[in-house]
């Protein structure tokens, strides 16, 4: 393995940001809330957590409100607002920013009729904010609904301790080189499986279709897969899965990072996006898959620009050609090839139908932007 040597302090990325020596959350009692959790609320109140993407295009915010009815669909919920000047989404002198409910999930933290609500954001004049990529994605999906685009996204992430070093890594240095950790089992191979397990259950309860999970190549790196989800819903589902993960990790006093390369010379994190249309899934769909790959090959850089929140800058650190990635500068495709931009899974090549895997999206990508680009390039021929 080519795992890094030297001192972790040499890596500026990992130590950027405010550093705590321990997490205040980690030391709080985890059972006290249980004394109040089942208090009956007057008049069947429903608590709704509105969740949205902030001005970074990468981080989530949330706030709660009380409803006196049980919403059945997003439109039943009131449009709300927040102070966009505090989230990088508006100026201070005109800061009201609108939250429009788009997708409902059951709340695994409060249970009952309580809800998690995925929202998108609009400026004072009801124009989408800069970080709202959902609008375009929804429009693209409306145009290609009949092709039934499915997306299965593999979300990789890394757990950090409150000092922003990977959770469980030895003080000031590195664990033994990568090799035994991927799909590992054992107390010296994987850290915080409790959190991963809780996340899996909470997502399924909420209505996020997690299809699997595994420990990844770097210690304290994990993956879960969402989907297949249809069209724009793939974005709603993945963002909600991210929210649930951050929210659960609070309880453990652990930090989740979706940064695509927190530690140089170790595996980074991606959001491999598995994509198919109805035709690709039918007999001889491999022909459709190859057509899509041909289209993708012609607009490689256009996709790279929307596959991380910084126009390709984040992926520059990750798509180096090493650590199971293809170089950011070249487009490539291959059967069972994990060093290519696009991989055709072996089973798909054998059955001559199925899906392709786009390995380029960074772990901190906006799935609305990724799904939008794939539909527009491969189905709408834009
Ligand atoms: P890998 O072998 O790359 O690690 P995973 O098993 O982690 O693959 O993830 C495969 C993903 O592909 C899952 O999210 C799964 O739901 C998704 N998937 C399976 N079939 C299809 C399909 N026909 N279209 C789109 N996504 C699919
Ligand atoms: Mn206020
Ligand atoms: Mn995977
Ligand atoms: Mn993986
Ligand atoms: Mn993959």
TrEMBL record:
Ranges of residues in domain GS beta-grasp: 46-126
Recorded catalytic reaction(s): these are:
L-glutamate + NH4(+) + ATP = L-glutamine + ADP + phosphate + H(+)
Q: Name one GO cellular component term.
A: cytoplasm
Q: Where is this region: Disordered?
A: 1-20
Transmembrane portions of the chain: none
Looking at the record, the residues that make up the GS catalytic domain are 133-382
Q: Does the keyword Hydrolase apply?
A: no
What are the GO MF terms of this UniProt record?
Answer: ATP binding; glutamine synthetase activity
Matching entries from SMART domains are given as: Gln-synt_C
Assembly = Homooctamer.
Q: Give the protein family.
A: Belongs to the glutamine synthetase family.
Designated name of the protein: Glutamine synthetase
Origin species, per record, is Papilio xuthus
* Gene name in the database record: LOC106126278
């Amino acid at each position: 393995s080519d795992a890094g040597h030297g001192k972790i302090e040499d890596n500026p990325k990992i130590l950027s940001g405010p550093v705590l020596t321990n997490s205040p959350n980690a030391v709080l009692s985890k059972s006290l809330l249980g004394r109040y959790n089942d208090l009956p609320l007057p008049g069947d109140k429903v608590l709704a957590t509105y969740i949205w993407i902030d001005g970074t295009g990468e981080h989530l915010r949330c706030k709660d409100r009380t409803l006196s009815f049980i919403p059945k669909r997003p439109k039943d919920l009131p449009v709300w607002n927040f102070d966009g000047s505090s989230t990088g989404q508006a100026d201070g002198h005109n800061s009201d920013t609108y939250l429009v409910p788009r997708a409902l999930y059951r709340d695994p933290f409060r249970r009952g009729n309580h809800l998690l609500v995925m929202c998108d954001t609009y400026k004072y004049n009801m124009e989408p904010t800069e970080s709202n990529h959902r609008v375009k994605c929804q429009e693209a999906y409306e145009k290609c609904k009949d092709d039934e685009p499915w997306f299965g996204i593999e979300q990789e992430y890394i757990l950090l301790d409150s000092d922003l070093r990977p959770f469980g890594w030895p003080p000031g240095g590195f664990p033994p080189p990568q090799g035994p950790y991927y799909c590992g089992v054992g107390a010296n191979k994987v850290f915080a499986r409790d959190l991963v397990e809780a996340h899996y259950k909470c997502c399924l309860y909420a209505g996020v279709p997690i299809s699997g999970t595994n420990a990844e190549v770097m210690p304290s790196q994990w993956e879960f897969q969402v989907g297949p989800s249809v069209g724009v819903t793939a974005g709603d589902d993945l963002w909600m899965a991210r929210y649930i993960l951050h929210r659960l990790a609070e309880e453990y006093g652990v930090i989740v990072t979706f940064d695509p390369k927190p530690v140089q010379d170790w595996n980074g994190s991606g959001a491999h996006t598995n994509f198919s249309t109805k035709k690709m899934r039918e007999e001889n769909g491999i022909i459709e898959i190859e057509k899509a790959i041909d289209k993708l090959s012609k607009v490689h850089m256009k996709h790279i620009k929307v596959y991380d929140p910084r126009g390709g800058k984040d992926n520059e650190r990750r798509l180096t050609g090493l650590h199971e990635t293809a170089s950011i500068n070249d487009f490539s495709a291959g059967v069972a090839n994990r060093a290519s931009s696009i991989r055709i899974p072996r089973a798909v090549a054998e059955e001559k139908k199925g899906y392709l895997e786009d390995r380029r999206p960074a772990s901190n990508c906006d799935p609305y932007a990724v799904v939008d680009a794939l539909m527009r390039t491969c189905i709408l021929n834009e």
